[in-house]
Specification:
With 112 residues, this protein is α/β, with parallel strands linked by helices. Helices cover 21% and strands 27% of the residues. The protein has helices spanning 12-15, 72-85, 106-110, and strands spanning 3-7, 31-37, 40-46, 60-64, 92-97. A 5-stranded mixed β-sheet has the order 1-4-5-3-2. Strand 2 and strand 3 (40-46) form a beta hairpin. The chain is globular.
Length: 112
């Protein structure tokens, strides 16, 4: 069974000054467009590609929600740092949904 955690790292919102960029300026290899139907998609940063079988060795998932600065990339990075330091990267899927405040197309976001 997969264990899922939902949390926000305290203090990050005050420290972040970044904003939403489409395409992302960094972490492009971890940027995925999750289809929601039609032209709609959810931009996410994820440690493993979304989809069936992409995270077979995963036993837990961490979903990280960003705050008002829309710094999903930084939240993703900070969470991955913790997961990596704890040597849990293989069995953990980290997902950071991004809620854009400006227009963005799936192809721009993930370039896939």
């Amino acid at each position: 069974p997969m264990l899922c955690w939902l949390f926000a790292l305290p203090g990050l919102a005050q420290a972040m000054t970044s904003e939403f960029f489409c395409p992302p300026k960094q972490e492009t290899e971890n940027a995925y467009a999750v289809p929601l139907g039609g032209v709609y998609f959810l931009p996410v940063f994820a440690s493993k590609p979304p989809g069936a079988g992409s995270a077979e060795e995963a036993t837990q998932a961490i979903i990280v929600m960003h705050g008002a600065p829309r710094s999903g990339m930084q939240y993703f990075r900070d969470t991955m740092d913790v997961v990596t330091k704890q040597k849990k990267a293989t069995e953990t899927v980290v997902i950071a949904p991004v809620m854009p405040d400006k227009p963005c197309k799936a192809k721009q976001w993930s370039n896939r």
